[in-house]
Design brief:
Layout lengths: L3 H32 L10 H26 L11 H8 L1 H9 L1
Helix pairs in contact: 1-2, 2-3
Length: about 100
C-alpha cells in the first residue's frame, strides 16, 4: 500500500517544476516591465508543468483508489471526488485557451 508520504515524495518534483515555471515567468515579466524591454518570445510553459502534475496526481489517486477497493470491496459503489478532478475543473477555461494557441 502506498502511503501519503510516498505519494507526496513522488509528486514533489512535479510540484517544484510547476511552481518554478510560474515563478520564472513572473520574474522575467517583472524584469521586462522594469527595464521597459519586450518580454522574451519563449518562456517555460506553466500550463505544461501543471498538466504533468495533474496527470501524476490522477495516477496516484487511481492507484490509491484501486488499493482501497481491494481492501474494502463492499464500498465500491461510493463516488469519491479526486483532487485531480477538482483541479482539472478549475482550469477548464485555461485548457481551452492552450488549445487555441
Amino acid at each position: 500500500m502506498v502511503g501519503p508520504e510516498e505519494q507526496n515524495r513522488s509528486l514533489l518534483s512535479s510540484r517544484r517544476d510547476a511552481v518554478a515555471s510560474i515563478l520564472m515567468n513572473l520574474y522575467v515579466m517583472a524584469g521586462a516591465l522594469r527595464m521597459k524591454k519586450p518580454i522574451p518570445r519563449y518562456l517555460p510553459s506553466a500550463a505544461v508543468a501543471r498538466k504533468r502534475l495533474l496527470d501524476q496526481m490522477e495516477e496516484a489517486e487511481l492507484e490509491t483508489e484501486e488499493e482501497r477497493v481491494q481492501q474494502r470491496p463492499w464500498q465500491t459503489g461510493e463516488k469519491h471526488r479526486r483532487w485531480a478532478d477538482v483541479y482539472r475543473e478549475c482550469y477548464i477555461p485555461i485548457y481551452f485557451l492552450d488549445y487555441l494557441n
